[in-house]
Amino acid sequence: MRKPLTIRILSALDKKSWLALGVFLALALVVVPVLHLTFPEDSAFHVSTYAITLIGKIMCYALVAVAMDLIWGYGGILSLGHGLFFALGGYAFGLYLMRQIGRDGSYGADLPDFMVFLDWKELPWFWVGSDSFGWVALLVMAVPALVAFVFGYFAFRSRIKGVYFSIITQALTYAAMLLFFRNETGFGGNNGFTDFKRVLGYTITAPETRLVLFGLTAVMLAATLVFAAWLVKSKFGRVLTAIRDAENRVMFIGYNPLWYKLTIWVISAVLCGIAGALYVPQVGIINPSEMSPANSIEIAIWVAVGGRGTLIGPVIGAFVVNLAKSWFTVSFPEYWLFFLGLLFIVVTLMLPQGLVGLWKKIQAKKGAEAC
Amino acid sequence: MKKTLIALLLSLGSLSTQAALDPGRVRQLAAEDSSDKVAAIQQITENADPDAVRVLTAMSEDSLYLAGDQAVIITDDSAFDAATGDAIKMPANPESITVNNRIRGELASALAALKLFDADREVRLASAEELQSKVSAGMAPLLKKALAQEADARIKGLLTLAYAQANLGNADPAARLDAVRALAETSSPVIKSVLLPLTDKANEPDDKVRYEAIAAVKAIDGRLAMAENVGQAFSGLSLGSILLLGALGLAITYGVMGIINMAHGELLMVGAYATYGMQTLFRAYFPDAIDWYLPAAIPVAFFAAAMVGVLMERTVIRWLYGRTLETLLATWGLSLVLIQSARVLFGAQNVEVANPSWMSGGIEVLPNLILPWNRIIIVGFAVFVLLLVWLLMNKTRLGMFVRAVTQNRPMAGCVGVPTSRIDTMAFALGAGIAGLGGVALSQISNVGPDMGQGYIVDSFMVVVVGGVGQLAGAVWAALGLGIFSKLLEGWAGAVIAKISILVCIIIFIQKRPQGIFALKGRFVE
């Protein structure tokens, strides 16, 4: 007999994990806002705007990393094009943010500034409905889902896998980047979308708006973790792991890997799209460089550093790598690429299970000594 | 110099006394009205008299004066009669003759036309070539005369064209028709623009001539389009050669050894920087032999990239055999380190690598199709490297070992092949070939820390399309992708071309997941 859904979801995480998740949400939804709003800027307890933006941004990255982990850690498919879905979600939400600027742009026109600059007279067809929040929220998920479905269907159907798949996804995001760099594509070319003023009528730079976005991101991250934990423990997740480990055997047993792979691929893309949509209003810009192959491959290293095949790993990885990045790029900008490059090498050579794997190993050693 | 030339011409002129010009005409050169001057110039030129050169040269050098009613040439301290060339007494107060720009242009083309009668073939050829772009109707008789005298076939061909152009303004429709027919044979944009007015009823009353002109323009257009396509195909060929040089190394490291090397583009960069280093070295120590830096750079680039390759293989890649996805990430890390090292060592800006002088210029195949030498040399270089790799892989012991290790590693080890050393050697070979690609690349594009990034996607596409395991696939895929993308770029723009090619590749892989040349046999995982 199947248990009710709520029970199944509740049992997706153990007690400790629920507790950790609760603490995380309490921090993000209560402690940080209180510290930010009540303490003056020079106080030691004050959480600065910079920190909120940075953490908010990294939580979006963590969301992408979890999405990447679902497909790579559990599905065994390394995508080097996840930046594309992230950027598509960001651009989709950017449409709405651009329309919210209204007539406050530097040209004071109804059209976004870059269109005035290009001497366009009306919005292109794909901008239709971009002033409606609901429609855009749908686009944020539907566009990455559609792209992922079409691409994934053709790729998985002809059983492209392993490195071939990775390279093709890299080519895909590269092609998309070139496309979005063009002014004629209608997404602001080089500069992308920026100079946002409002979201849902609220000033985007107001502390309250920032905190709401920050909280939303935290909730989304927590919800994704619960969903992912439930998903990988379900029958679907088991079959997926089996496909990762021995695709041919799964096929011979009678499963069609196509639909399993395609489902997780689309879910992963949608999660990336949502992450992108949360990222854009917090960071205030989206441009085609988000689609560069280098960005996408960096997502893989977050997951690898944290530990793939675990759900907390990608989150840890995203935080560790990105905190290191923001520290390096401020303190030693010329050494950041050395560090990142060496991180790639060291993690693949010495830490195939990532930090989580290292932690587990240390725990196991301790346990063995205790006996 | 000029003065001596005139003096020389004058003495020549005075020898042939019977060839004196009509003094009245010469006098007209000094007329008040520009149009009269032009008419005089044309009439003097028409008879192709050697004296005409003398007078017109003098006029273009402002040494033609009017003394009373006589045109005189005055150099330094002596004076000559312009019409006869006889020395005369220095006139009291010579009046200079104004030569404005219109007259100057007329003089230049008249002098060029007169050179058609020069004794030296080279001078005649140069003059005939120069005339192609500035024929005027008045030159027809002169050209006819030159044509009758000319023996050289090449010059004759040029003159026929010039004569036909001059005849386009002829009052006789039959002459015009002949001229148009003659011009229809050419394929130059200049001639097309000359013929274009004749396709309009306003300029050409005769139907027959007009239709002929329309047909001629069409024919020229066709030939021009063909030349353009040939040009596109050629630049595609040279792009294909670059891709091939990039992909050949990959065909060994990925195709044969199964290693995904994301730092391959950076090995190209190492080769390009090695070329830059050689250039700097030659500039500093052997400035006289600067043109030779490029041949010297070839082995240096090969070994520099191969050394980097050995280092990469020994420290990182060898621990990851069989784990392709991990290799991909680790080599990406290596590429980041290499890029940053280049930035630290050479600066973030692009460095300047100049073509040696023997690589500049090009071969003119058709009037609007020039094949640049550097591209031709790169195509040749790619063929050379391809041959080298083929020989190495198929005719040497090393190649045999590499193939043996690829096909069956344990068995190769059992019969005494040092498998791990062969891995290093093969990887170094692939890296070295990438270095050679870098030498070629340094000649046609920017050399900078990021240069390798742009080629890595393309190179992998070549390997994916070509199929794994042999060189033939990489060759055909590289050439096919190069030519196809250049032709597409011609009518759709670079970005659309790139995107449609990627889409094509994705569709292609649907049909042939193993590439053009699939390995025959049973392969499961």
Characterize the structure shown.
The complex is a heterodimer of chains A (371) and B (525). Chain A is an all-alpha fold and 371 residues long. Chain A has one domain (17-60, 67-75, 82-290). In chain A, 71% of the residues lie in helices and 2% in strands. A two-stranded antiparallel ribbon of chain A has the order 1-4. In chain A, strand 2 (198-199) and strand 3 (202-203) form a beta hairpin. In chain A, helix 2 packs antiparallel against helix 8 and helix 4 crosses helix 11 (257-283). The longest helix of chain A has 27 residues, at 207-233. Chain A starts with a helix and ends with a helix. Chain B has 525 residues and is mainly alpha-helical. Chain B folds into three domains: 1-117, no CATH class; 118-205; 225-511, ABC transporter involved in vitamin B12 uptake, BtuC. Chain B has helices at residues 2-15, 23-28, 34-46, 50-60, 101-114, 121-131, 140-149, 153-167, 173-183, 189-195, 207-256, 264-285, 293-315, 324-346, 373-395, 397-407, 409-414, 419-444, 453-466, 471-492, 494-511, and strands at residues 64-67, 70-75, 78-81, 87-88, 95-96, 362-366, 369-372. The termini of chain B are far apart. The model of chain B is unreliable at 11-19 and 520-525 (pLDDT under 50). Chain A binds chain B through residues 78, 151, 154-155, 157-160, 162-164, 166-168, 170-172, 174-175, 178-179, 181-182, 248, 293-294, 297, 300-301, 304, 334, 337-338, 340-345, 347-349, 352, and chain B through 260, 262, 316, 319-320, 324-330, 332-337, 339-340, 343-344, 453, 457, 460-461, 464, 495, 498-499, 502-503, 505-507, 509-510, 513, 524-525.
